[in-house]
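Ticket #4471: structure export looks truncated?
Reporter: QA, pipeline team
Priority: medium

Steps to reproduce: submit the single chain below to the structure queue and open the exported record.
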Amino acid sequence: MDERAESADGPSARRGGCAVRGALVTALVVAAAAGGLATPAPASATPHWYGNGQLITTPVRALTRARLGQLLFNFSTGTATCSVKGTDFVSNPSSGEAGIDEATGFSAKHCEESAESPCGSVGEEELHIGALGLPWRSHLEESGLGIRDVFEGVMLEARCTKSRAKGGKGGISLGVYSGTLTAKAGNSVLEFEAGGGLTGGEFGPLTVTGTETLVGKGKAKQITAA
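Actual output as written to the record:
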């Protein structure tokens, strides 16, 4: 044998191996493009607000509503459900960051309470819940279980007043409850989750659970997040 002949693991063999591997990689790429192989799903996009299926490009005024029994205010001693009305403005930053929401109005009236709720055993008195520190600002967050609307800087004041007191004025303050509220964004619906609750006040922590509708004004009535 010629002593100059290359061994089995010499340069020629290595070049041959590289050629084989290159051909194999090319075949895999072609097969994947043709659907022959599963490819990883793309990473989830930053969540944004949509109105009637179209990306919201200018702020949309939306009304929030909850009838009795839909939204619950859970104090440490008992639960109350109230008729809730509010106003939000949903939008998407031009920078492409996650969608934002701004609650500019909130009222909870005509509350019905369990016997153990803060005002439930005070005779002719009833519970009123008012908003402080408006506007409350929020942002959308993607999680493995869906998209959440996270409201920060929420402040609610609970009061026991005489029945049918106009605007819940007067009476006894049960303190201010503050913190963060989180709601799953659905099809024109916000579904609030208990989380850690709002702290402070005489009967805290206060959690808010249940659903309220989120309906846009104008052409963007159906509000969704994706």
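Status: closed, not a bug. The export was complete when the record was re-opened. Leaving a note from the reviewer for reference: The helical segments are 11-33.
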